Amino acid sequence: MTVPMQAEALDISFKLVPAIIVFLMMASFLVIGYVFKVADTEGMWVAGRGIGNIENGMAIGANWMSAASYLGLAGLVALSGFYGLAFIVGWTTGYFILLIFLAAQMRRFGKYTAPDFVGDRFNSPTARALAAFTTLLIAYVYSVGQARGMGLVGQYVFGLDIIPMIIVMMTITVGYLALSGMLGATKNMAVQYTILIVAFLAGVYVVGFSQGYSTILPQVEYGALIADLGREFSAPFVNQPFYLWIATAFSLIVGTCGLPHVLVRFYTVRSERVARWSCVWGLFFILLLYWASPAMAAFGVDLFEATTGASAYAAEGGMSGAEGDVIVVLAAQFANLPTWFVGLVAAGAMAAAIATTAGLFITASSAVAHDIYTELINPEATQRQQVLIGRATIIGMGALVTVTAFNPPALIGELVAYAFSLAGVVLFPMFFLGLWWENTNRQGALAGMVLGLLIWITSIINSVLPNYIGALGAATGESGALVPIYSQYVPPIGAALIGTPVVFIVTIAVSLATPEPPLETKKMVRQCHSPEPMGQQETAADVVGDSTSGGTPADD
């Protein structure tokens, strides 16, 4: 087994007070999970559809601000300068599309999962299976980065090697998720958001003030460092071409709108109005961290160079990828802040990673238990069987993610971006067309999803797998890709720039060339845009079913 890259500059030793902080935090998650444990599918998958807008907004924020945001985003900015800003642009802009085009409409459609929407909207078990497979793939790729972040932070707090720390932290996470389901996960996410945002902002303000970088607004004042940090921050596109910046930002925008663990948050609320407002609150809660992340990256780079005496970007003695992934913790450490305070910053990173892992694992378990097992294999499955299958999926996914995180193929932020690219290419076109063009049919959806999967998988095989498979690596030469021109225009991190428009075109073309979907399906789409209010547990299919048995559809 390959030993993962270590963050050499990180003070890896047992620290009593930070250890107590992390222990109490993890124990509280287990307690909350137990108190809100569930035994039925309604609580397991959609938290009983009773979550309010602020609580759901906090859950969206915690769900969203993973180790990739808390740790990886600052690391990407620190290591790649201007290119790293593509992640901030992409990961925030997508929420405006969600707010305007998807949040309320998804809630009115009113199913349990993202594959549930695809299967019922396009009247296709095959489309459901493809969506479930994509959901599992997204959860797996995304979660590897979270497990990696947990291990790095655990190293700092407990002084152990990264591998046992990944195992311990993932075991605790899987334990409370298997017990609590979506209801307990949502309650925990609100707590986790509070922990992570307090820890991150405290870190930014204290590091900035104590080192003389800033006074009252480090989010703006860090700009004074740009001249000192040189071309990495001041000259656009030095490290990466302009095309890759655009491709990355675009993929993250549309990927945001295709992530199953984000969209399922709108199934957990009371109404479509709450869905819209929870999206607004979620964007506000995300803003608090994203506005400050570049400042922490700048502080961390400057402190790294002052402490080590070497340029952060030097070939030898410079900042490694592992150190970039923990730049938030390193900045607090290099500022000579009290150990307990650095431990608090580290605990926030742990909370961020666990919150996102929770959302991902719940969507993965629902995809297997509900969309594959119940809908495709055993339609007579009891609620107890579904919950058991869901819990078994969480455990199995946890084991697979844990092993992969020992030696991940990329930085935390890059790993997460691969998952966004997949969601943007395969699922976003289905969600958007499925809700906004009633003539999108089964044949079009199947053609688009298969093509999207092929585009993404070939980009991974072309550019990522050669790093792991010796024979492929030998065939790439210095380019690092099997087909360099394909890697240039369809990179794994930005495959959606070309892939998503192509999938849209193919889905529309095939839908126009084949029979229209049934009238009942069209009525469900219309109901998603009706101004008429719906009941808390009511779905578009319920309304259409009532109308066909004697009533009048809201906007037929």
UniProtKB/TrEMBL annotation:
Xref: CDD domains: SLC5sbd_u4 (cd11480)
GO cellular component: plasma membrane
Key words, A-Z: Membrane, Transmembrane, Transmembrane helix, Transport
Chief localization: membrane
Sequence intervals crossing the membrane: 12-36, 85-104, 125-144, 156-179, 191-213, 242-262, 274-293, 340-368, 388-406, 418-437, 444-469, 489-514
Membrane topology: Multi-pass membrane protein
Gene3D superfamilies on file: Sodium/glucose cotransporter (1.20.1730.10)
InterPro entries: Na/Glc_symporter_sf (IPR038377), Na/solute_symporter (IPR001734), Sodium:Solute_Symporter (IPR050277)
Region span, Disordered: 525-556
GO molecular function: transmembrane transporter activity
Source organism superkingdom: Archaea
Subcellular location: Membrane
Compositionally biased region (Polar residues): 546-556
Family: Belongs to the sodium:solute symporter (SSF) (TC 2.A.21) family.
Protein name: Cation acetate symporter
